[in-house]
Amino acid sequence: MTRPLIVVNFKTYASASGDAAQVLLEAMEAHATGPATMVAVVSAFDLALLSQASEHVEVWSQHLDPVGLGGYTGWLEPTTALARGASGSIINHAEHKVPLDHVEQLLAMLPEGFPVCACAADVHEARALAALNPTYIAVEPPELIGGDISVTTADPSIVSDTVAAVKSVNPNVRVLCGAGVKNGNDVAKALELGAEGVLLASGVTKAEDVASVLADLIATL
Ligand code: G3P
User: Fold this and answer.
1) Residue range of the domain that includes 53
2) 0.70 surpassed by pTM
3) Does residue 1 have a pLDDT over 90?
4) What residues flank ligand 1, with Cβ below 6 Å?
C-alpha cells in the first residue's frame, strides 16, 4: 500500500521562505519516515538549499516552464531545477495558471517517473489534465484556498467526483485534494473520498505550533 501524501506548499509565505523555510523543512523531516510521504513545495530561491538539507522529505518546485537552456529570462527551466535537487513539481496551481499545452510540453520534456502534480479547479479541468498523464492531479476549488473550511467538508463531492472522472480517463493518475485542509480529520476524510493525499499551505505555514499541526495531520493514518 502506497503511503498517502502530505504536500505542503510553502508558496511565498514569510514563515516558509529563506531561514524560516529551513525550520519548516526540519519540522516536516521529523515526520517524514512516518505513515505519510512528506513533500515540501518550495520557492525556486530556496530549492537548492532545502533539497540539500532534506533527508526524507521530498522537495518539489512550485512551478516549471517548458523551456530549454538559453534565452528565457525569468523562466523556471526544468533541467536546472532537477540539478538543484527538485524531486518533483506542481504545475497549474490556482495562483499560477498555465494553458493546457504548457502542461503537455512540460510533461514531455521531464524525465520518466519525475513526479508532477497538476492542479485543477474543478472536475472538468481535472478530466482534461488526466488525459496528459501527470503523476498526480490535485483538485482545489479556488474559492476555498486560504480559508478555514476544508474542501472535504465544504464540497466533498468535488473530491469523489474528481477521483471518478480522473480514473475513468486515466487510471494511473493519483488524485489529491486541497484548499482549507487543516487537520487529521480533513486528511482522513480526503482518503475516505478516494484521494491519495492532500495539498495544503496555510494550515501549516500560518500555524502557531507547526509541530503539533504536522503530528495531527498524520495522526489518523
Ligand atoms: O497549494 C495548496 C493551496 O492552494 C491550499 O492552500 O492555504 O487553503 O491550504 P490552503
Assistant:
1) 5-217
2) yes
3) no
4) 9, 93-94, 140, 145-146, 178-181, 199-203
Ligand 1 atom index nearest CA of 9:
1
Write b or e for each residue in 3-27: b if 16 or more Cβ atoms lie within 10 A of its Cβ, otherwise e.
ebbbbbbbbebebbbeeebbebbeb
- 113-172: per-residue pLDDT in tens? 999 999 999 999 999 999 999 999 999 999 999 999 999 999 999 999 999 999 999 999
Number of domains in the chain: 1
Q: Please, are residues 198 and 177 in contact by the beta-carbon 8 Å criterion?
A: yes
**CATH code of 197's domain:** 3.20.20.70
**Does pLDDT of 189 surpass 90?**
yes
Name the active-site residue from 93, 96, 124, 196: 93
Contact by Cβ (8 Å): 47, 61: yes
